[in-house]
Design goal:
four-stranded antiparallel beta sheet, single chain, 3 domains, RCK_C_sf, Rossmann fold, about 300 residues, alpha/beta, Alpha-Beta Plaits, K+ transport system, NAD-binding component, RCK_C
Length: about 300
Amino acid sequence: MEITEIPIQPGNRLVGMRIRNSQIREQTGANIIGAWIDGELQLPPDPDAVIRSNTVLLVSGAHDELEAFGEFTQPYPYRTFRRHERIIIAGQGEVGQAARGVIAQEGLDVTTIDIEDHDGVDIVGDADSDENLQAADIGAAGAIIVGLPDDSASLLTTVLARSLNSNIEILARVSDINATRKARSAGADYVLPVPRVSAWMVVSELHDEDILAPASQIRLLRVPADPLAGSTLAESDIYERAGCRVIAVEDDSGLTSTVDPQRRFTGEERIVLVGSDEAVQQFRKQFDVSPIEPEA
């Protein structure tokens, strides 16, 4: 059982669709267990929430189910970020440092602009300066990563970058979720308002890899089902009592992520739950159960 975070890009078939109507479970076997919507983690997500470009879905399932999910959600027309030979980094903060490390390993040409003179900074000054962007040769760059701590500066940098190079690919991180739409309107191709997620996501885009990374704020718990013996999943009220979701059931026939809410448990099964740290602790308290330790 795996959990991954998958961003929804413009052109994806799910854009504009409510989660309850997405047919993801029916078509792929994978489950949407959470979503970053407008920069806020919903765990579980509101079934009536509308999936938009730059929504990040938390999806669980077996490896083949996640692969099926990837194929099912291919954008029409399919859109991926291009692999670039020359990249500008605006801001040597968390995102900038993470991206520069990967870019350096790939042997790509990178120019970093930052207001302070640190190791790895090529141009000292404001990134939202026409002069500094020109000095970074933005006209010849294929992409720019905007990772400034101030959203106003990020928006201005995005506008300037787009005006100086209409074909450049712009990946922007903003701190305030209210700045997301503004950044898109300013010309950013990809915006994510969650710093700790955007750092690895930006790097994955530049690395030309599928964006599959461990979800950092949720926990998996594998426990014996004996507290549920004689009841169905629907009758157990696990979510109502603890805030966790059952995403898989394991018995003598193996592990399945197709969980029937009317299945009556014998108590011999094992169940896999997902939830926040707080929800997992609440489940253990409410149902007086300890996790099954993985076999050595």
